[in-house]
């Protein structure tokens, strides 16, 4: 009898469960019918996203990324063999079809301003930054709103500066350019006197980026001329009754100092290195014209993209006119890539990117400083700690370049001294300083930096009669 009761209870229990399940399904279908319909539509939409015309491009990109080149080279989708195979482009000191052949006598090349040391970060973030551009992507000169600047990109840049805390953008105008170089030229044009009988005098403080002199002289017009060094004009009190435009690079290229204008007039602030991985950020910059670039932030120099933040509407409109007349706007393909790159840069308030870049630069400066501490022949620029609002700590600057000085009286050409030790650097005279100084790039890829440290260690070891071997 008890067995029969237990059997009946079991049947009733399972029937109860079945009824509850059916009831829940009924309620869901009745109340959530619309939602279920949306879900079916979404599933149908996702299934329609199978690769079609992008399949070949995606396969090419994956194949190129998979090419190891022995870990000492890189392959790119714009250079394939006739049968579609990747071609390795070898790093400095390596050769061969797979970049496996190393040259023991190779020199460490440290002349460029490329930020190739950031390449590993972008490889780690390949999925978030990849862009497939269709053959019909934005074929018009303008965006749908009639402008030549992507609104989403401008908004992203404003958010970037807010996160980094390095520039005031609220209530400011913005202009895009083909890198910072074009924007520097546009700013000179916008600030020039417009008076042919009294052209504006363009100045910079030594040491300064050679492009200020070379580009301004190349495009010199009846409205502006490159006059040279600020200090020479200041000492002669020769700026009276002159219209002066001053380039202010902060942090400075090559020594990393935060600069201020010598004169109180018109100034163009080149702030391409004013980011947390190169210098502490004590406060947001709030200048009349501030110029930044993708190349000195994320390392994407080849994309040729920069932007200017401007206070005055008249200056903004003149710079916009300059860009329009010289290029009819900035490539929309470039703007799309910049957007994808910067969206990843600001992810999680920029912490992954800035911490990666700052950690790398700190490690390199620590190693370089340690090596130079053993030398009386060579010295580095002074670096002083100050508070960084972004990292919320007091820290040393970690500039992109080492500004090396040869201390011996006979070493009056420091670049040549380093070249004899198999280090290729940039002469001080190229930056309007004396040749007792030379600029060494610390933003090279890992292979090149390791070789650079070996060459420096050997040079310094010679002072003590010892030598490090490979």
Note down, in words, how this protein is organized.
This protein starts with a helix and ends in an 8-residue tail after the last helix. The protein is α/β, with parallel strands linked by helices and 470 residues long. A seven-stranded mixed beta sheet has the order 6-12-11-10-9-7-8. Strands 13-16-19-18 form a four-stranded antiparallel beta sheet, with helices on one face. It has helices at residues 2-31, 33-47, 55-66, 119-124, 126-129, 151-164, 179-191, 210-218, 230-235, 313-327, 332-345, 351-372, 414-420, 446-462; strands at 73-74, 89-90, 94-95, 101-102, 108-109, 173-177, 200-204, 224-229, 244-249, 266-270, 289-293, 306-310, 378-379, 386-388, 393-395, 401-406, 423-424, 426-427, 437-441. The longest helix is centred in the N-terminal third of the chain and has 30 residues, at 2-31. The chain is globular, with a radius of gyration of 29 Å. Helices cover 39% and strands 15% of the residues. The chain is built from 14 helices and 19 strands.
Instruction: Give the number of DSSP strands.
Output: 19
Poorly predicted segments: 1-15, 17-40, 42-47
Shape: globular
Largest β-sheet summary: 7 strands, mixed
List keywords for this structure.
470 residues, alpha/beta, 7-stranded mixed beta sheet, 4-stranded antiparallel beta sheet, 14 helices, 39% helix, disordered N terminus
């Amino acid at each position: 009898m008890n067995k029969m009761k237990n059997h009946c209870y079991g049947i009733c229990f399972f029937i109860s469960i079945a009824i509850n399940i059916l009831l829940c399904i009924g309620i869901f279908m009745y109340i959530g019918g619309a939602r279920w319909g949306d879900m079916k539509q979404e599933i149908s939409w996702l299934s329609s996203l199978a690769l079609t015309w992008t399949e070949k491009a995606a396969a090419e990109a994956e194949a190129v990324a998979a090419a190891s080149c022995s870990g000492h080279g890189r392959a790119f989708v714009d250079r394939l063999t006739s049968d579609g195979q990747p071609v390795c482009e070898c790093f400095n000191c390596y050769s061969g079809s797979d970049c496996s052949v190393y040259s023991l006598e190779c020199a460490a090349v440290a002349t460029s301003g490329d930020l190739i040391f950031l390449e590993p970060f972008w490889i780690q973030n390949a999925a978030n930054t990849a862009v497939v551009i269709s053959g019909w992507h934005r074929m018009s000169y303008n965006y749908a709103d009639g402008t030549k600047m992507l609104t989403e990109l401008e908004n992203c840049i404003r958010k970037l500066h807010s996160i980094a805390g390095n520039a005031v953008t609220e209530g400011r105008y913005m202009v895009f350019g083909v890198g910072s170089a074009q924007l520097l030229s546009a700013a000179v044009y916008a600030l020039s006197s417009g008076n042919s009988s009294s052209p504006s005098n363009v100045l910079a403080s030594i040491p300064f980026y050679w492009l200020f002199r070379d580009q301004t002289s190349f495009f010199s017009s009846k409205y502006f001329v490159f006059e040279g060094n600020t200090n020479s004009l200041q000492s002669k009190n020769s700026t009276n009754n002159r219209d002066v435009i001053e380039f202010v690079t902060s942090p400075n290229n090559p020594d990393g100092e935060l600069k201020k204008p010598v004169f109180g007039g018109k100034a163009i602030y080149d702030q391409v290195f004013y980011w947390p991985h190169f210098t502490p950020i004590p406060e947001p910059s709030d200048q009349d014209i501030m110029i930044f670039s993708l190349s000195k932030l994320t390392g994407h120099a080849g994309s040729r993209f920069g932007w200017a933040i401007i206070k005055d509407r008249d200056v903004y409109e003149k710079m916009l006119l300059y860009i329009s007349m010289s290029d009819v706007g900035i490539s929309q393909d470039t703007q799309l890539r910049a957007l994808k790159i910067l969206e990843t840069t600001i992810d999680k308030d920029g912490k992954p990117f800035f911490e990666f870049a700052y950690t790398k630069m700190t490690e390199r400066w620590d190693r370089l400083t340690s090596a130079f501490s053993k030398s009386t022949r060579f010295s580095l620029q002074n670096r002083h700690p100050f508070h960084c609002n972004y990292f919320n700590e007091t820290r040393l600057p970690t500039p992109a370049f080492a500004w090396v000085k040869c201390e011996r009286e006979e070493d009056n050409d420091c670049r040549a001294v380093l070249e004899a030790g198999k280090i290729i650097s940039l002469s001080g005279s190229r930056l309007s300083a004396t040749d007792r100084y030379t600029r060494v790039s610390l933003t090279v890829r890992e292979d090149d930096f390791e070789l650079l440290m070996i060459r420096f260690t050997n040079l310094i070891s010679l002072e003590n009669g010892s030598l490090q071997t490979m």
